[in-house]
């Protein structure tokens, strides 16, 4: 069992408070403005870029992505790629068994799909250490549980290595293992960190253009060339690589805002975006 490590910090620590907090994210002026309804499974949305800051900052932006996911219906498995903020564990770490717990319950790791992905690439290690205290994957789970309860499984992949070769190889491994399977791939990332509002928006626009253009290499190269402090560019690149191979043809920016917009102040902000990648 992988217990929650940021409950009560990044999001509310009790079931009732967390459900209320998630609904407030949807109803926020920066959120969709209404609560989601789970539709019949359509398998149109293949990938999602979603932020992972505290819900008071990024939750309303994240809600736009999960609003789209809800309309597309319950996926069998959700592959969640997140950056490694802690420095613990292997360069690319996957968990192939066990459960993850939040105040909303437990979610089972998809053992078959996780093992398929691990076998598909020598660069991916079966390693729970990297996941023990990493928040980037965990904060996606309550939004998914709010929609689908415990009816879905997850594949958690934590990336310390985010270079172009590694990211594309991870994407290829996911695409090969997930072919013919019903999956959603979430890339967990925040964008520019701790810069003034104007410069954050300008920098983030450049990398968002590469995501909208379905350009996994361009994402990494733009982050490098422009000095953008985006923490999960590797997960985004890997998601795009996999999604394209699984039939995705377009990406749509659902919402962009900064912590300055949602909570202030404007002098040192972090950028957030929800982007849907679909057939």
Describe the structure in your own words.
- The protein is an alpha/beta fold.
- The protein has one domain: LigB-like (Protocatechuate 4,5-dioxygenase, Chain B), CATH 3.40.830.
- 40% of the residues lie in helices and 22% in strands.
- The chain has 10 helices and 11 strands.
- Strands 1, 2, 3, 4, 5, 6, 7, 8, 9, 10 and 11 form an 11-stranded mixed β-sheet that branches.
- The longest helix is centred in the first third of the chain and has 18 residues.
- The N and C termini lie far apart (35 Å).
- The relative contact order is 0.20.
Tell me the CATH topology. Answer: Protocatechuate 4,5-dioxygenase, Chain B
As for the number of domains, it is 1
Proportion of β residues?
A: 15-25%
Structural class, by secondary structure, is: alpha/beta
Biggest β-sheet: count, sense, barrel?
A: 11 strands, mixed
Roughly how many Å is the radius of gyration?
Answer: 17 Å
Annotated CATH architecture: 3-Layer(aba) Sandwich
Please give the alpha-carbon distance between the first and last residues: 35 Å
Quaternary structure state of the chains depicted:
single chain
* Average residue pLDDT: 98
Query: In total, how many beta strands?
Result: 11
Shape: globular
The CATH first-level class comes to Alpha Beta
Supply the CATH superfamily name: LigB-like
**Uncertain parts:** none
Structural key phrases:
279 residues; alpha/beta; 10 helices; 40% helix
Quick overview of this protein structure:
The protein has a single domain, classed as Protocatechuate 4,5-dioxygenase, Chain B, CATH 3.40.830.10.
